Amino acid sequence: MIIDRLFNEVEKNGNVCVGLDSHLDYIPVNLKEKYQDIDEVLFKYNKEIIDKTCDLVPVYKLQIAYYEAYGIKGLLGYKKTIEYLRSIKKITIGDIKRGDISSTAEMYAKAHFEGEFEVDFITLNPYLGFDTLTPFLKYIESGEKGVFVLLRTSNPGAKDIQYLKVSPKDEYLYYIVGDKLNEIGTKYRGSCGYSSIGAVVGGTHVDEAKEIRNRYKNMFFLIPGYGHQGATGKDVSLYLNNGNGGVINSSRGIITAYKNYEDGNQRFADYARKAVLEMREDIQSESGV
Amino acid sequence: MIIDRLFNEVEKNGNVCVGLDSHLDYIPVNLKEKYQDIDEVLFKYNKEIIDKTCDLVPVYKLQIAYYEAYGIKGLLGYKKTIEYLRSIKKITIGDIKRGDISSTAEMYAKAHFEGEFEVDFITLNPYLGFDTLTPFLKYIESGEKGVFVLLRTSNPGAKDIQYLKVSPKDEYLYYIVGDKLNEIGTKYRGSCGYSSIGAVVGGTHVDEAKEIRNRYKNMFFLIPGYGHQGATGKDVSLYLNNGNGGVINSSRGIITAYKNYEDGNQRFADYARKAVLEMREDIQSESGV
């Protein structure tokens, strides 16, 4: 199952998920001048970073909004990047946060689990209810694919809905979501013990980290919020289990690390590698592995 | 403001929103054989339907999943369709249901309010919280753009999260969302009285229709669920105010209406027109206009 592949990659390469949120403003001018088409600029930037980091990381995440923003060419850059990642056997997460009624969800599944935008994992939004997951289950059951459903996010607005207290037990809403995902996910556990139905859990709120980790022992977490959004290695390590059971995403902290160096423009991928190494060490020293 | 344009269109043309959820299976074989590229097939199908219905409807909605499913070419079909709609001055809703942290939401705003995929309205998902709306507000404030945020949807799973009872008042969660949207929307009301921050309210659950309409007097509703999903003209008219204040979407019921007729393949757009007329009448007879 795909979750076993991810588990093994984490065992081997650590927990850093490189977020390729490739805003054109993040890309060095010299690279932008070299290629005429946006898709090539995006792809070449991503490829250099991938080539310099792929021996250090278990998985790459692409936030599709950054590509949608540049229209057809932008999405062509997305497609080229995930195709490349798959060709070198790296695991891919399409951070698409889709969520829709089942006939529509079927089309999203076709788009992101089969078509030109095929990735290994996607992120999903549960607001419309759990029937919206159904069209994805056959892909998960086949062992080929997995999902990370939004549970508790890393932004300040997370409190608006996810932290509402729900009757009759007066529990945070995100536990209602988590309990249900946990239940659905039981059927899709790999030999590593984790389910291919994982959850997105922001690394920025740490008060309930231990409770979340204990309550969902078989859930694999995609953890955003490291670096720019404020979560530290210590914070995010609370969501891990003996150094596994989760990957921690960093985007700007890695792909724009070069901006702090004089020779950054020329060596942006080297500085991405350096940032990955530092982040990996920060997490590992805290998770005691 | 865009909401005034929509209000006026509804006054003139009624409440039917044509949903261009253009699955290739819905498209007549003879049309599919005529064009080599998927973008052309999708566009020509949409264009014929648009040309035969545009004097009868206030707005068109494109569910982007149906285009994403066909990859780059599919999205090119999406782009061509919305460009065409804008060229003939019809109002467009991009049914994208995005929702993400603010830096990402900024990119979605750029994608769907500025770029190649520019539409007049988009749909948004509130699960991540209300800070995720912020990047869209400057577009709304300019008067050019509007949003419909998911409040209570038309699928069975709506009960899973939207109908949770929230402490301390033991109210349905969707009222928490609605009250907050209503509050944010106050600032963006047009001269018609409605706000450019509208809501998606499924037409299939009618028990609380009157309460929703009364509680959110200045909110314009995008109402899915008519036809295939089970809502009737009587059901959806409960969400209107003197025949305005909402548009009712139908997709398959209109764009595949031709399948019931022997000469449907040749005359699919004529039958789409017939379906629109019948639906418009069904709603108007019930809303007493």
UniProtKB/TrEMBL annotation, chains A, B:
Pathway: Pyrimidine metabolism; UMP biosynthesis via de novo pathway; UMP from orotate: step 2/2. Transmembrane segments: none annotated. It comes from the Bacteria. Its EC number is 4.1.1.23. One of its GO terms (molecular function) is orotidine-5'-phosphate decarboxylase activity. One of its GO terms (biological process) is 'de novo' pyrimidine nucleobase biosynthetic process. HAMAP family: OMPdecase_type2. This is Orotidine 5'-phosphate decarboxylase. The gene is pyrF.
